[in-house]
């Protein structure tokens, strides 16, 4: 089934082990988003962006600068495969499937157990948007429109509180 629908599920990642394979721009963006939900992130890549290096130095992620090994997935709850190597991403997908680990291959939506949504967070509210991996620009535009609408509502609430005083 090519266009199967994905169930939107909000889960507690605070104590889950997340493995990100890859150290480029996509991996860095994924890690920055995940940091709002957990600090249990291990990044494995021979080379990483400066920003990822800083996240590792600051202790926000466990940074391992070497090629990934099968044993790196032993305790993983979720894996993000964000390398520039299609063969490696395919192997990561295969291993995760065998081990029963949720996997997202950033370059191939057909190899994703879950999609990485566009996220807006504000004061306990979390909104996630996806276009099922088909149209990232549309998903970003919708997330921005929702963000603008929620910010307008918050501003109206603030104005009402000021008028009540």
UniProtKB/TrEMBL annotation:
InterPro entries: Met8-like, NAD(P)-bd_dom_sf, Sirohaem_synthase_N
Enzyme Commission no: 1.3.1.76
Chemical reaction(s) catalysed: precorrin-2 + NAD(+) = sirohydrochlorin + NADH + 2 H(+)
Gene3D superfamilies per UniProt: NAD(P)-binding Rossmann-like Domain
A Pfam family hit: NAD_binding_7
Coiled-coil intervals, chain numbering: 136-163
UniProt-listed SUPFAM superfamilies: NAD(P)-binding Rossmann-fold domains (SSF51735), Siroheme synthase middle domains-like (SSF75615)
GO biological process: siroheme biosynthetic process
The UniProt record lists the keyword Coiled coil: yes
Keywords of the record: Coiled coil, NAD, Oxidoreductase, Porphyrin biosynthesis
Pathway: Porphyrin-containing compound metabolism; siroheme biosynthesis; sirohydrochlorin from precorrin-2: step 1/1
GO molecular function: ferrochelatase activity; precorrin-2 dehydrogenase activity
Main enzyme class: oxidoreductase
NCBIfam families named in the record: cysG_Nterm (TIGR01470)
Entry protein name: precorrin-2 dehydrogenase
Species in which this protein is naturally found: Blautia wexlerae
